[in-house]
Amino acid sequence: MRSVRASGSGRIGQLALLAISALLIVASVVHPYLPGEHDRLAVPLSLMAQAYGVAGAPLAVVGGLWLMLPRRRKIWFVISLVLATMVAAFLVLFAKHGVGTSFGLLVFAAWGWCAVTLVLRSRRNRGTDEAAPRAMPWFLLVTPMVTLAAQLVLATPATRASRDRAIAGAAALIADLESYRVRHGRYPESLEAQHADYATGVVGIERYHYASRGDSFDLSFEQPRFLLDDLGAREWLVYNPRDESRVPTATRRGS
Question: 212-215: long-range contacts at Cβ-Cβ below 8 A with a sequence spacing of 24 or more?
Answer without folding.
Answer: 212/187, 212/188, 213/240, 213/244, 215/186, 215/187, 215/242
